[in-house]
UniProtKB/TrEMBL annotation:
Organism per entry: Fibrella aestuarina BUZ 2
Record flagged with keyword Calcium: no
Entry GO MF terms: 6-phosphofructokinase activity; ATP binding
Record flagged with keyword Transmembrane: no
Domain Carbohydrate kinase PfkB, residue spans: 7-295
Gene Ontology cellular-component terms listed: cytosol
Family: Belongs to the carbohydrate kinase PfkB family.
Protein name (record): 1-phosphofructokinase
Length: 319
């Protein structure tokens, strides 16, 4: 069983326009609505690969009902966490003349102390309860909404370990640092985020293994997956470093690419596949997500085609 958690989800609204011009009335394309937020995107990725997960996410108001309907349409098992505030809406606008993408994100509702406590307790109130069906992976992805303490993910990591679940965390800043003090199974920083975690100004490719190993040796995590954008991704654990190059594709949008990488990896690992298989599938999913406009994520056929490219002639480069 895989559980994903999205504490600050959004209704993602994407559209195209010829060009953004200030102080003019601009005519956009018909908007596309998608369920957004890190954990929800991970669940969407797992579902598109043929798997299933349980998505937990906060909802509130009319936009929350829209979000629920969008998740339902994806065929994802889900349990909403009710809030009094409105679920946020985020906007992605792409200029057709330049292919430049503009993202407009809103902070989300501020949680009351009771709502904050309910978010943490909700994982123990799964239907059926977590004590009766073991959860192998808990995936938390995305930012914390206003009102949640900085150590919220650290508290969740503690609960996951108490239930012998592997906690996968994809976030940044102080909430990530606090969780690493507690210890997690896997994180997915980009190169800049990894540098900040080891107090470095910047990192080059040949310094990734040393930086990731530093986190692993101090007990912060067991696996570090470093997202390298169009260059692919690198996986580091205590035994090895694996690098997978991303296939060259025509990029339309990067929204959800990192979440697709995480979803592909967790899906593979939950099937007891190797780290090499997992990073290959993750890079294929992340790359395929960039091939589609707006917030559409990936198509399975694209993943299969890119996976064949990744596996030939050298499936994984050990470093």
């Amino acid at each position: 069983m895989i559980v994903t958690l999205t504490l600050n989800p959004a209704v993602d609204i994407s559209m195209t326009i010829d060009r953004l011009v200030p102080e003019h009335k601009l005519h956009c394309s018909q908007p596309q609505y998608d369920a957004g937020g890190g954990g929800i995107n991970v669940s969407k990725a797992i579902r598109r690969l043929g798997g299933q997960s349980l998505a937990l996410f906060t909802v509130g108001g009319a936009s929350g009902h829209t979000l629920e309907a969008l998740v339902e349409a994806e065929g994802i098992h889900h349990q909403p966490i009710r809030l009094s505030g409105l679920t946020r809406e985020c906007f992605v606008v792409t200029e057709t003349t330049t292919n430049q993408q503009y993202r407009f994100g809103t902070p989300g509702p501020t949680l009351t102390p009771d709502e904050a406590a309910d978010c943490l307790a909700h994982i123990n109130r799964l239907d059926p309860p977590i004590d009766y069906i073991p959860v192998e992976y808990v995936v938390a992805s995305g930012s914390l909404p206003p009102g949640l303490p900085t150590d919220f993910y650290a508290q969740l990591a503690r609960k996951a370990k108490a239930h012998n679940s592997r906690f996968v965390l994809d976030t940044a800043g102080d909430p990530l640092r606090a969780a690493l003090e507690e210890g997690v199974f896997m994180i997915k920083p980009n190169l800049g985020e990894l540098a900040r975690l080891v107090n470095a100004d910047r990192l080059e490719m040949d310094q990734i293994t040393e930086a990731a190993t530093q986190l692993i040796r101090q007990g912060s995590c067991q696996v570090v997956v470093v997202s390298l954008g169009p260059r692919g991704a690198m996986l580091v654990d205590a035994a090895e470093t694996l690098y997978v190059q991303a296939p060259p594709v025509r990029k339309q949008s990067t929204v959800g690419a990192g979440d697709s990488l995480v979803g592909g990896m967790v899906y593979a690992l939950a099937q007891q596949r190797s780290y090499a298989d997992a990073i290959q599938l993750g890079v294929a999913c992340g790359t395929a997500a960039t091939m589609n406009p707006g917030t559409e994520l990936f198509h399975r056929a694209d993943v299969d085609r890119l996976l064949n490219w990744i596996r030939q002639p050298y499936p994984v480069e050990s470093m």
